[in-house]
Each structure stands twice: as C-alpha cells, then as structure tokens.
Amino acid sequence: MTTTPPRPEERPPLDLSGKKKRQASEQLVKYVLVACSLVTVATTVGIIIILLYEALRFFRDIPFWNFLTGSTWTPLFSGSQQEFGVVPLVMGTLMTSVVAALISLPLGLGAAIYLSEIASERGRSVLKPILEVLAGVPTIVYGFFALTFITPVLLQPLIPGIGTFNGLSAGIAIGIMALPTVASLSEDALRAVPRSLREAGFALGATKFETSVRVVVPAAVSGIVASFLLAISRAIGETMIVAVAAGQAPAGQSGGSDGWWDLTESMQTMTGFIAYTFSSDISRGTTAFHSLFGVGLLLFFMTYLMNLLSQWVTKRYQEEYE
Amino acid sequence: MSTSVAAAQGSEQYRARLGVRRVLSEFWRWIFFASTALAIVLLGMLLYSILVPGLPWLSWHLITEMPSRIPEQAGMNSAIWGSIWVVLGSAVLSFVLGLGTAIYLEEYAEKNRWTAFIQTNISNLAGVPSIVYGLLGLVVFVDLMNMGRSVLAGAFTMAILILPIVVISAREAIRAVPSSLRQASYGLGATKWQTVRSHVLPVAFPGILTGVILAMSRAIGETAPLIVVGGASQVLFRPGSPTDPFMVMPLQIYNWTGRPQPEFEHLAAAAIIVLMIVLLIVNSLAIGLREYFSKKTRI
C-alpha cells in the first residue's frame, strides 16, 4: 500500500493547481457517504410503508377490529371456513415467549452473576467462550434440537401425551437460544459496577451472596432489565425454532388441544405462520397472502415496542459511576 | 449486668444468624454455578443430538450431490453453492454500505438530532425480527425491482439484514483509531478524505474486516428471510448467475427436517454438522485475521 516518498531534493516544487478539483472530489465523497447512511433510514421507512400498505389491503377485506379480536385463524382454508382472527397466533407467540423467558431470564442472570462475581479468572476464560458458542449456533439447529431431542427424549417421559409438535419444546429451545444474550449483556452490566461498591458491602459485614444480590445487582439493574427485554423481543421474533418444532396448527385449533394455553399441543406463532405459508407456496393477491403482512405489521410493532422500552430503561435507570 | 447479658444474647443471635447467612451464601453460590453449568450441559445435549444421528450420514456425496427424493443419494451441493453466492454477495454489499455509513457517522457527521436519529435507527434495525426483512425483500427486491426469487434478491435482503452489525463494528474500529494520526495528516496539508482514506481506514481495516466476517457468519445461519424471498422448494442445480434461483444450507436443513421419513432427519443432522463446520472455519478466520493484523499494525 505505502509508496516511499521521494527524497526532498528530488521533489518538484509544490503545486496547488489541483485545489479546485480536490475540493470537488471532497464534496462528492461526502455525498456518497451521506447516501450510504440514508440506506439504513430507507430500510426502516421501507419496512413501515410496505407493511402498512400491504396490511391496509388486507384490512379492506377483514376489518381491523375483527382481525385483532377474532378467535379463529384459518387463512389457508377455503371459502366460508376461512377466518382471520389473530388471537390464537398472538397467544402462541406469547405462550412460547413466556416459556422462553422463564428459562433464559433466571438462568441467564444466574450465569451472569456467577461469571462476574464468583468465578475465578480461569473459570471465566473457559465458561465465557462456551456461552459464546451457544450464541453462535444458527436457530434452525435449535429447531432441530427441539423436534428431535427436547420433545422425544426430555419431555415425552414427563408428559406422556405430548404431541410431536408442541409449544413447550419450542419455548424451551428459544429459552436456550436467548440464554447467552441475557448472560453476556447482564454480565457486562454487573462488571461495570465499580469495585468500591462491593468492598463497601464486605466492610459492612455482608456475605458474598448478600453483596452480589443487594448491592451489585441493584446497581446494574438498568443493564439487566434491558437484557431481559432484548431477550423477550428476540423470543417474539424467533422464527425457525417455532417453524420446525411448534407445529402448523394455531394454539387451541389442533385435535387434542385443550385451549390457547395448552403447551403440549401444536401452537403456531405469528412468525411460524409467515414462514410456513411461504414454504408452502401461496398464491399472490389473495386475502390470505395479504394477511401475512397484517401479521407482520403486528409482529413488527410488538418487537419495536420492546426495543424502545429497553432503550428507555437503559437511559432512565442507568447509574453513572466515575 | 443486664446490658452485658443483652449484649451476650445479641452476639449469640448474631452468631446464629451469621451461620445461616454463610450457608445461604454458599447455597446460592451453587445455584449460580448450576445455572452456568446447565448452559454447558444443554450445549452438550445439543451437540449429542446432532452428532449421534448425523455422523453416520456424513459423507463426501453429501457435499457433492444434489438433493434427491432418495435419502441415500441426496446431497446439499446446490445449497452449499447457493450459500456461497448469497453470503458473498451480501458481504460485499453490506461492506460497501456499512463502511460508508460508519465513515460518515464517525468522521463527517455533526452532532445534531439527525445524526442521533440515524444512530438510534441503526440500533432499532438490529432488533427487527429477521422474517420482517424477508417481507421487505419480497416486496422491494423480488417484486418492485423485478429481481424475482433470485440469488440477487437473496443477497440484497441479507445485506440489509446484516448492515446494522457491519455499521456498529466498523464504527467501533474507526473510533479506536487515535486522533493524533488524523492531526498528523491534517498537519501535512491532507484533506479530510485523504486523511480518512490513507490514514484512518488502513488502521481500522482489521477491525472492519472482523466485523464483516462475523456478520457473514450470521448470514450463513440465517434462514427465515430466505424462506420468504427464495421459497423453500428444491433447487437441483448450483446457481450460475445472479439471476438464478437458489437454495442455502439452513434452508436445505429446514426442508429435510420437515419430512416424515427418519432418514431425512438423519440427513438434516449431517447437514447441520457441515453447516457448523463452515461456521467454525469462518469464525476462526475472523479471530485469526484479527490476531494477525493486531501484531502487524500496532500503534
């Protein structure tokens, strides 16, 4: 890359005649860079416009209120059996996300406290990379794990009647997927708490556990809650795990299901519906096709809200130590 | 007299409490350790559930053959080539756009509301579910720009998806370049772009490259948006041009996992092993490059 500069005696007299040209190219570069940065803005605007535009075509056929409150979701049926009530899909998403949260939040926080407060440097240097491996596994692999291991090997002995496709195994797999997110972000927050606070705790006679839980965790609470919200947002948006393991019938609509809350049966989520419909070649321009964008819009707003909330928590409750 | 009794009782109570508190402390120490250990046990189970059915099915013709209805003859050649096309295409696109955005934000942009908006927007984009990018790609690239269900549409969609990762890591790399380097360049009369091009970027390059490779590893494993953009139907040839239809590795795994015959499930496990090996290679490459460059350019 680097060329050796000519020695001073060989150097021609300084020529600034290219100044105008240089200024013009400086301006050009700036415009190109601005254009690059506008792509990200265009992406957001594009997502919102496209989802709204296509969803509005859907809401022309199905009134928004009926979509939001209807309790039967059968878009791929024909004729009068076709119904577009999104509640079962939303319930599927919420139920699997709750299971995922029950697994990833406590385990992730526990692992974060262990890595930050208890583990030795050597233990940390072994455990942290393992969590990072867990974070790098593609989600389709977690889906495969849920379908071929969690359901038949872990759950079937405990719950004999559980279906091949069920919400519980998908929720557990999402929880495992989100665990490293919680652990690593919470650990960052815990480690940012200054040492002096811990020492103050020990000086008052608190045990290690009391210092960790009553001093360090409260001091890092904004980062921990933000990591929780991010994990829940990822659970809501997760697609491949539910597409593989949660089944194709919406919550409460498969044969053996007792209702929306029945995690042992097939439980299609919002994302699962979108993925399944596209993998089964749907014809364009139908109400069912446009319903994909209605569901997409709802999904987008749910996750966007979680992300905004997470940013707000970080800003509002952040403690500054210097 | 009575005060010393009270004090003695007090200290006795204190001792008793201390025992409980110590036990509690020890108990929770194990709980925290157990939650970390459980994560590792789960990783072990994950690997076990893939290696046991997958290893016997791992063979050269899995890599060299095309998908087939007969599991013994099926391979993932078209998916491997599809992944290479889509991932390299998206890496190039997101590198150009991401680097441009990062340079603008770090070196050119003034600190005002618009810049703050762009930054917030980028972190928000990182949280949008990947399948929503698929819907965007379907309408904008496949339909409006007439690319059809092609490699090009897949690469564009994936590029937009990994753009926030590239921008965030490139910005960090540029920010890490000491400002004395810029001052020295300005001191010699260089313009802003000359400074950025010949002093900031060469130093920041390893960090930027690492970010792009890590974004690529995300793109390799990403499936959901490509179901929407590419469709999940079988592709029996490798793409020859950017306008050809494509299949990628995780999509092939999804396709095989969804079939009722157990043989295809084993085939999917073998394909997962191939995918994980590819990811391992790509991630090691990122780490290796970072090490190599950090030894070479030390400031």
Structure report:
The complex is a heterodimer of chains A (322) and B (299). Chain A is mainly α and 322 residues long. Helix content of chain A is 70%, strand content 0%. Chain A has 12 helices and no strands. Chain A has helices spanning 19-61, 64-69, 87-118, 121-136, 139-155, 167-191, 195-203, 208-219, 221-237, 240-245, 270-279, 287-317. In chain A, helix 3 packs parallel to helix 6, helix 3 (87-118) runs antiparallel to helix 9 (221-237) and helix 4 (121-136) crosses helix 6. The two termini of chain A are 42 Å apart. The model of chain A has no long low-confidence stretch (mean pLDDT 89). The radius of gyration of chain B is 27 Å and the shape is globular. In chain B, helix 3 runs antiparallel to helix 8. Chain B starts with a helix and ends with a helix. Chain B has 299 residues and is mostly helical. The chains are: A mainly alpha (322), B mainly alpha (299). At the A-B interface, helix 1, helix 3, helix 4, helix 5 and helix 6 of A face helix 1, helix 3, helix 4, helix 5 and helix 6 of B.
Q: Describe the global form of chain A.
A: globular
Number of helices of chain B: 11
Order of helices and strands of chain A: HHHHHHHHHHHH
Helix content of chain B: over 70%
SSE class of chain A: mainly alpha
Uncertain runs of chain B are none
Total beta-strand segments of chain A: 0
State the helical fraction of chain A: 55-70%
The low-pLDDT segments of chain A are: none
Radius of gyration of chain A: 26 Å
What structural category arises from helix and sheet content of chain B?
mainly alpha
Radius of gyration of chain B: 27 Å
- The dominant shape of chain B is globular
- Beta-sheet strand percentage of chain A? under 5%
